[in-house]
Specification:
This protein is of the alpha/beta class. It has helices at about 15-25, 35-45, 60-75, 95-125, 135-140, 145-165, 185, 190-200, 210-220, and strands at about 5, 30-35, 50-55, 80, 125-130, 170-175, 230-235. The chain has a single domain (about 5-235), classed as Rossmann fold. The chain has nine helices and seven strands; from the N terminus they run E-H-E-H-E-H-E-H-E-H-H-E-H-H-H-E. A seven-stranded parallel β-sheet has the order 3-2-1-4-5-6-7, with helices on both faces. Helix 2 links the parallel strand 2 and strand 3. The two termini are about 30 Å apart. About 45% of the residues are buried. Bound molecules: acetoacetyl-coenzyme A. Acetoacetyl-coenzyme A binds next to helix 5 and helix 7.
């Protein structure tokens, strides 16, 4: 598919796998990242995918950054809202900052990236928005009141926007990954990670490439009848 795509948080973890898979599928891809220059440079050297640094938590930075990407690559057809952070803490210890940072990136970031692109997608009568939510937005998770609330919010956003985009040829879908072998999950204390793996019927963590293949499908021209859906990819850990 010769479409132009941007992946937020696209230089590491699930996002990097998505960017590479979209490129392999024939897209012209840009990867956004927020802070880790070293990882971004390595990713760019290995894949040839151009990288752009800005925070999705900052609306004006999104407008500026997307303007640069579109000036270089042309109008964006596919937006993958993948960027996400954790600030895990039991609620009695959670600070306002931990709540706010997660909301700003994981929920407001999805608005900040989608809003500036929406009008162009409407005018061109084509768009694919894929939001990477989480199993923990579906089931909740101890020490993740902030993260689970934001990820559940992403699902509501997806369902509403799908209804608005449908007549304009824009599909909006969400993917809820379970526990995937990325830096984010590896940061969970080992003992707790082992307990989590024990709850996954397939008996292992997921691979980033397994989520990337879901994105390629939802972003394809062939997936035009699928909108407002939530694709659950969690090894059977939570069945919805
Ligand atoms: N259910 C019930 N109780 C739990 C629990 C759980 N899942 N996890 C921990 N607890 C209990 C502990 O047993 C402990 O109890 P006691 O005080 O009686 O011993 C208490 O909660 C934890 O208290 P601490 O003071 O030790 O907590 P802490 O301030 O050190 O925080 C933590 C520890 C941050 C909660 C840590 O346990 C942790 O990181 N947990 C993992 C949370 C998690 O799964 N995050 C997902 C990250 S990956 C991701 O988000 C990607 C994705 O989309 C899937």
């Amino acid at each position: 598919m010769s479409r132009t795509a941007i992946v937020t948080g696209g230089t590491r973890g699930i996002g990097a796998a998505i960017a590479v898979a979209l490129k392999q599928a024939g897209c012209n891809v840009a990867a956004n990242y927020a802070g880790n220059d070293e990882a971004a440079e390595r990713f760019n050297a290995e894949t040839g995918i151009p990288v752009y640094r800005w925070s999705v938590a900052d609306y004006d930075a999104c407008v500026d950054g997307l303007g640069k990407v579109e000036a270089n690559l042309g109008p964006i057809d596919i937006l993958v809202n993948n960027a996400g952070i954790t600030r895990d803490a039991p609620f009695h210890k959670m600070t306002r900052e931990q709540w706010q940072e997660v909301m700003d990136t994981n929920l407001n970031g999805v608005f900040n990236m989608t809003h500036p692109l929406w009008q162009g997608m409407r005018e061109r009568k084509f768009g694919r928005v894929v939001n990477i939510s989480s199993i923990n937005g579906q089931k909740g998770q101890f020490a993740q009141a902030n993260y689970s609330a934001a990820k559940a919010g992403d699902l509501g956003f997806t369902k509403s926007l799908a209804q608005e985009g449908a007549r304009a040829g824009i599909t909006v879908n969400a993917i809820c990954p379970g526990y995937i072998a990325t830096d984010m999950v590896m940061a969970v204390p080992e003992k707790i990670r082992e307990q989590i793996i024990a709850q996954i019927p397939v008996g292992r963590l997921g691979e980033a490439a397994e989520i990337a293949r879901c994105v390629v499908f939802l972003a394809s021209d062939d997936a035009g009848f699928i909108t407002g859906s939530t694709l659950t990819a969690n090894g059977g850990q939570f069945v919805v």
